[in-house]
């Protein structure tokens, strides 16, 4: 007999599969996703028009097509993207051949696997909730498949109950079960979806592009006090060599063993820094990092580099001290940081001379230069005009309005002309305090560029020309909401009043705080964190861990089982329990008792099977009927029944 | 009293051969104060069964042959102008009898059908604003041809629901048919039948049926049956509360016929096809098959 799944079951199944695969639309190639969607719609249509279903040969052709598409898009079935695509295509194809219950199970289990693959792409709390919900629908499919009385709402309720019951167990397994970590190399093939951010090259206008992006870069939770806003410089890449327009990072090779290690003086700030997925393996530490945990190293440019996959969120323990002395400078380094893109023009040389470059002490010249920026009608703007040709000179002498990148590059350029080693530092400045979670959020909009000059006896010293022009940028940080709302930049036509804005801000802070804790406690719960946590519980070896696992799983299982079984036991009539024992004894002897059989029916059949026991059967049945159905049962009846059933042997 | 019931059943079995269970169900239906619907093809003894029951219960009875041109007034009666008194006076129709044999009820138009069915439910008749009570007890035994026969107006669900039971007769067995063929004509036998019950005895029996004990365990089973019929996709609509009450009353009467003082699950199971079959699926004929999933899936224990 051909298996015909009910319409309700099919709708349930196709609906949940559609929901499960939906987020993959952003992950797998559009061709493959369209192929899958087509198969799903085909199957959906066939619920009402079964004759449209392809036959065996048709399915075979579709399979070939699927393999072809898969190969053309992925060239492999290994790796995250290719493997996910394989599962999705297989799921779509399997939908077209449902010949029995078995196929429904295969599809549902395959759908569970596809649900799991979502977490290879996204680990946010929203995705976790979404997948949990969709798994509930999928479970309801299984329930519908197996129930006599399929009802949509009842099935959803049951699946919700099952999920709720299994959550404590999942929690215990999550905390206690040894964490498995995928080897690093396995993910490196796949592209990382961090979009914007600082890059290896800097052009004066490039940071301005970031200035409106509210995308989170990292979050910092300080163990003690926060450093004052003016000291919140998060150090990123160094830009030292320039062709006059763009600035590049110097080669880092050979700098690892800088003979002059920086020396630090108090105070130092200890903090936990959580990086969002990035393209580069840079970690933006507060200047200047003194101590840092495993997985990090400080290169010769005092930038922290992680050896973890930058595409994953990661948490680092770092200490920084704002007062430091980097010591001496090597010949190569000096040469590198005095490099100029050709001979400076006359008016540049004139300007440097005017500001007492080369003649006075470097500190004096720098002071004069900053004074020049302050006094000579320079402006700070978020939307500077493009200066494609000779940007530094155009900025210095004509436009006089720019973003931090313009100031930093012009500053460094002039210092180099004055033969002071200088370089541009990229990174982030400031950050917004999340009042709910008590941590600092640093967004792309906080991207900043400042300068560093090497001074005799002091080492590399930070100078921020932007602070000279727009001190409020440094003191208060960038407020993206305000910038958008004030209309300084035409970004969104919606006019937001201050009240709405603060509500939005509070809501966003709350959400960020939830997200931060999710990242910290769930996503970042890796082998190291687990070990530390378990040790704090006193679990230091696998035997103890095993005991804990068994005890907690058994404990939770016991509680759930007790809750599930208890009401039944309480409701059960003692007479019924005795009668069930009697039935069980007979069932062992080969009497088939259906659930729809009444006591008299059972007795008749039992007597036919064992005429020799007829008397006992009749007595037990009569007593049971009297106890359970009649009004005239006597006090001793239950005891008699108990004795009879106990003595009864088949 | 019990003997009278035994005698009644035995006498009925003498007239209608080989249909013990149907006769028992029909008696059970009357003891439960319900109306009875007998459905089968013409000629298998529907009318004979109803005549026999009427005779044996000792009730004054009237047969109404339903035809396609019968009018409500032909059933309930009408007001006629009395020239002497210069007044309209009501002439009661054939329905004012204790037992009505409504033959081939589905041959009549819905209008005529509903006149009878209203009377069945209300146990009174309203004509031109005046209400006339029907005699006590009041039974309707209706016979109907299967819906697929030509010239029938099938009763809608709402009206079929007013009958406590629907019984199918079916062809007699070979042996029963032989006896029928070789015996006396049935109408002669019926005419000779003495009443097996006095009117007071019938009332007593009905009261005794009411007092049969129903335990909470049995109500659990009954409610499980009702719940199953409402949840299962096998049925378009589940059993109504009225069906539940009917089921319980019929099971009580069945236990009484079995001379028991308490209702057992088996009693419910015995009356379930007749009580629930026509409510769960009006069109189908095989009541036993309709209720089979209920008996199979609802646990008794």
TrEMBL record, chain A:
Keyword Membrane: yes
Keywords on record: Membrane, Transmembrane, Transmembrane helix
Chain segments carrying region Disordered: 313-341
Transmembrane domains' residue ranges: 12-41, 53-71, 77-96, 103-121, 127-144, 156-177, 545-565
InterPro entries linked: Bact_TGase-like, Papain-like_cys_pep_sf, TgpA-like_C, TgpA_N, Transglutaminase-like
Cited Gene3D superfamilies: 3.10.620.30
Transglutaminase-like domain span: 396-467
PANTHER family assigned: PROTEIN-GLUTAMINE GAMMA-GLUTAMYLTRANSFERASE
Protein name: DUF3488 domain-containing protein
Species for this entry: Methylomonas fluvii
Automatic annotation (TrEMBL), chain B:
Top-rank lineage group of the source organism: Bacteria
Gene3D superfamilies (UniProt xref): Magnesium chelatase subunit I, C-Terminal domain, P-loop containing nucleotide triphosphate hydrolases
CDD domains per UniProt: AAA
Domain AAA+ ATPase: 32-173
InterPro entries: AAA+_ATPase, ATPase_AAA-3, CbbQ/NirQ/NorQ/GpvN, ChlI/MoxR_AAA_lid, P-loop_NTPase
Segments forming a coiled coil: none
Name of protein: AAA family ATPase
Lineage: Bacteria, Pseudomonadati, Pseudomonadota, Gammaproteobacteria, Methylococcales
């Amino acid at each position: 007999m051909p298996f015909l799944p009910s319409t309700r079951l099919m709708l349930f199944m196709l609906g949940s599969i559609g929901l499960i695969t939906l987020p993959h639309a952003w992950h797998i190639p559009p061709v493959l996703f369209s192929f899958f969607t087509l198969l799903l719609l085909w199957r959906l249509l066939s619920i009402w028009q079964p004759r449209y279903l392809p036959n065996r040969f048709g399915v075979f052709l579709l399979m070939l097509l699927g393999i072809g598409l898969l190969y053309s898009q992925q060239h492999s079935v290994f790796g995250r993207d290719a493997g996910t695509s394989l599962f999705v295509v297989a799921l779509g194809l399997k939908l077209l051949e449902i010949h029995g219950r078995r196929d429904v199970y295969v599809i549902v289990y395959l759908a569970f696997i596809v649900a799991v693959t979502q977490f290879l792409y996204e680990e946010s709390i929203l995705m976790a909730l979404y997948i949990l919900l969709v798994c509930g629908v999928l479970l309801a499919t299984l329930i519908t498949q197996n129930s006599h009385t399929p009802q949509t709402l009842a099935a959803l309720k049951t699946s919700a109950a099952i999920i709720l019951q299994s959550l404590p167990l999942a929690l215990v397994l999550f905390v206690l079960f040894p964490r498995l970590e995928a080897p690093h190399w396995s993910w490196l093939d796949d592209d990382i979806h961090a979009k914007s951010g600082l890059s290896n090259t800097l052009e004066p206008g490039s940071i301005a592009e970031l200035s409106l992006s509210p995308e989170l870069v990292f979050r910092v939770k300080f163990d003690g006090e926060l450093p004052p806003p003016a000291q919140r410089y998060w150090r990123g890449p160094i830009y030292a060599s320039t062709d006059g327009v763009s600035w590049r990072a110097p080669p880092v090779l050979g700098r690892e063993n800088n003979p002059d290690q920086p020396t630090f003086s108090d105070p130092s700030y200890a903090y936990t820094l959580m990086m969002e997925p990035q393209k580069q393996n840079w970690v933006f530490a507060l200047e200047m990092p003194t101590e840092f945990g495993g997985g990090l190293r400080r290169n010769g440019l005092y930038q922290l580099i992680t050896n973890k996959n930058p595409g994953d969120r990661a948490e680092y323990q770092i200490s920084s001290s704002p007062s430091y002395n980097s010591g001496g400078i090597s010949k190569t380094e000096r040469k590198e940081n005095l490099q100029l893109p050709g001979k400076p023009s006359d008016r540049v040389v004139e300007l440097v001379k005017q500001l007492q470059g080369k003649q006075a002490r470097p500190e004096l010249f720098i002071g004069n230069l900053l004074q020049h920026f302050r006094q000579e009608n320079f402006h700070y703007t978020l939307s500077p005009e493009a200066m494609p040709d000779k940007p530094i000179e155009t900025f210095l002498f004509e436009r006089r309005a720019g973003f931090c990148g313009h100031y930093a590059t012009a500053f460094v350029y002039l210092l180099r002309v004055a033969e002071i080693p200088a370089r541009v530092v990229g990174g982030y400045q400031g950050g917004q305090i999340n009042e709910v979670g008590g941590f600092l959020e640093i967004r792309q909009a906080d991207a900043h560029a400042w300068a560093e000059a090497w001074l005799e006896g002091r080492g590399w010293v930070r100078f921020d020309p932007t602070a000279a022009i727009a001190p409020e940028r440094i003191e208060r940080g960038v407020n993206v909401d305000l910038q958008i709302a004030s209309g300084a930049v035409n970004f969104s036509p919606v006019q937001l009043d201050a009240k709405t804005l603060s509500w939005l801000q509070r809501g966003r802070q709350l959400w960020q705080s939830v997200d931060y804790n999710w990242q910290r406690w769930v996503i970042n719960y890796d082998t190291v964190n687990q070990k530390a946590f378990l040790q704090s519980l006193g679990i230091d070896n696998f035997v103890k861990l095993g005991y804990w696992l068994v005890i907690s799983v058994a404990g939770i299982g016991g509680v759930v089982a007790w809750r599930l079984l208890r009401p039944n036991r309480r409701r059960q009539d003692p007479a019924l329990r005795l009668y069930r024992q009697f039935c069980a004894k007979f069932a062992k002897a080969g009497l088939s008792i259906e659930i729809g059989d009444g006591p008299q029916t059972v007795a008749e059949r039992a007597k036919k099977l064992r005429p020799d026991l007829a008397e006992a059967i009749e007595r037990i049945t009569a007593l049971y009927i009297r106890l359970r159905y009649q009004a005239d049962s006597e006090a001793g009846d239950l005891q008699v029944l108990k004795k009879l059933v106990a003595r009864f042997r088949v | 009293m019990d003997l009278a019931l035994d005698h009644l059943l035995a006498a009925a079995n003498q007239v209608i051969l080989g249909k013990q269970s149907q006769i028992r169900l029909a008696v059970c239906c009357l003891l439960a104060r319900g109306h009875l619907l007998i459905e089968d093809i013409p000629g298998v003894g529907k009318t004979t069964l109803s005549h026999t029951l009427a005779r044996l219960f000792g009730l004054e009875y009237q047969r109404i042959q339903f035809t396609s041109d019968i009018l409500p007034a032909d059933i309930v009666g009408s007001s006629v102008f009395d020239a002497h008194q210069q007044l309209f006076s009501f002439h009661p129709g054939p329905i004012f009898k204790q037992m009505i044999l409504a033959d081939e009820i589905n041959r009549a138009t819905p209008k005529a059908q509903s006149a009878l069915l209203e009377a069945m439910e209300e146990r009174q008749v309203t004509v031109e604003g005046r209400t006339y009570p029907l005699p006590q007890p009041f039974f309707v035994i209706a016979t109907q041809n299967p819906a697929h026969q030509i010239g029938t107006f099938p009763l809608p669900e709402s009206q079929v629901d007013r009958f406590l039971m629907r019984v199918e007769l079916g062809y007699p067995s070979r042996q029963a048919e032989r006896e029928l063929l070789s015996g006396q004509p049935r109408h002669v036998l019926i005419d000779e039948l003495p009443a097996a019950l006095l009117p007071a005895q019938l009332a007593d029996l009905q009261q005794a049926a009411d007092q049969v004990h129903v335990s909470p365990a049995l109500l659990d089973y009954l409610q499980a049956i009702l719940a199953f019929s409402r949840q299962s996709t096998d049925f378009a609509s589940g059993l109504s509360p009225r069906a539940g009450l009917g089921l319980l009353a019929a099971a009580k009467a069945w236990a009484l016929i079995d001379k028991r003082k308490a209702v057992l699950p088996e009693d419910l199971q015995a009356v379930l096809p007749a009580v629930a079959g026509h409510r769960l699926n009006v069109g189908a004929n095989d009541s036993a098959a309709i209720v089979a999933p209920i008996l199979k899936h609802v646990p008794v224990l």
